[in-house]
Amino acid sequence: MLDNKRVLVIDDENKIVDVIRSYLERDGAEVFEAFEGKNALETFERVNPDLIILDLMLPDMTGEEICKAIRKKSRVPIIMLTAKIDEKSVISGLHIGADDYVTKPFSPRELMARIFALLRRVSEEAVPLSDIVSLNNGDLVVDVLKREVRKKGENINLTITEYKVLMALLKYPQKTFTREELINAVLGEDYDGYDRVIDTHVKNLRQKLETNPKEPEYIITVHGTGYRLGGE
Fold first, then answer.
1. Is there a domain that residue 85 lies in?
2. Are 155 and 41 in contact (CB under 8 A)?
3. Which of 119, 179, 196, 197 is deepest in the core (most CB within 10 A)?
4. Per-residue model confidence (pLDDT) at position 62
């Protein structure tokens, strides 16, 4: 199921967008659409999607240009959707940052299977962290080697559990953690306490990291599911 997943569909053919939308919404996704490049990039910035389905042939920009622009800011999964079937085009799309490639005409069932496989793979893969992780142009900095966290240049004292929560989210930036998954990652699978305890740790962490804890930038609540990483 794609409950609470935000999917941006970028294609200039209304019929194709409608078909993809119907299949995505059937599985619980929230679908956003764009029919040309400029609007696609604006929508991307506004909704911060969990997945992008991107056509290569658009009236004002190429899909490759859009993909490159998005990759400068985000690791969001991207599936290229195109009539180009030559090997060179496929390889080029993958090299500039696409995660998968589906050619037109396509089977909606095949597209959905690829979507599920890609999201499952992304959620299960940890991102190798560099020694220094910087978010939002240095507003939040994590020194992984020293286990130090700085907000606007000032050191922030985190508890061991709060630090583990932050590290779990940083390692899996595309994953939405359920409370149980976050508890397993932070407190261990043997933890047998109240699952809402993780909410308390998240609340305390937000008080320390967020400029406005009521409008968090870094620890985002996904209603009905859990939490995910925000920021760039």
1. yes
2. no
3. 119
4. 87
